[in-house]
User: Which sequence fits this backbone?
């Protein structure tokens, strides 16, 4: 009986995990469209791999989860423990002309849109080197 419960629990967890993954899978094409419309190349350069200033990071090939959490952190203000403090990036993710609300005004990127952007950026060939 214990074995049957364990197998049942495991199958349920796998099914739930698969459903969550497919429901939140990022859309690279949508991310590309958002990056292009959002004008990210203005600072991060061609293919997001040639910044206009050494102060700006190369993004191409960066890990999706890192990019997603960084972008999300720029949307958080007033909390130095979880937010990031950069006026340019905060403006980009909080009020970007690439996305508009029902009123036609720029709005904040949704979490799904941030995941799409992050997936696209990770898909780009870049100079990221992993050291082990």
Assistant:
């Amino acid at each position: 009986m214990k074995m049957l419960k364990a197998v049942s629990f495991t199958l349920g967890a796998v099914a739930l995990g698969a459903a969550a993954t497919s429901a939140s899978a990022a859309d690279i094409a949508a991310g590309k469209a958002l990056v292009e419309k959002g004008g990210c190349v203005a600072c991060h350069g061609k293919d997001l791999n040639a910044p206009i200033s050494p102060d700006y990071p190369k993004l191409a090939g960066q890990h999706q989860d890192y990019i997603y959490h960084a972008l999300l952190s720029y949307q958080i203000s007033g909390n130095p423990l979880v937010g990031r403090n950069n006026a340019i990036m905060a403006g980009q993710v909080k009020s970007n002309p690439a996305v508009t609300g029902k009123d036609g005004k720029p709005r904040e990127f949704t979490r799904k849109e941030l995941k799409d952007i992050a997936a696209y950026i990770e898909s780009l060939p870049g100079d990221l080197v992993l050291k082990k």
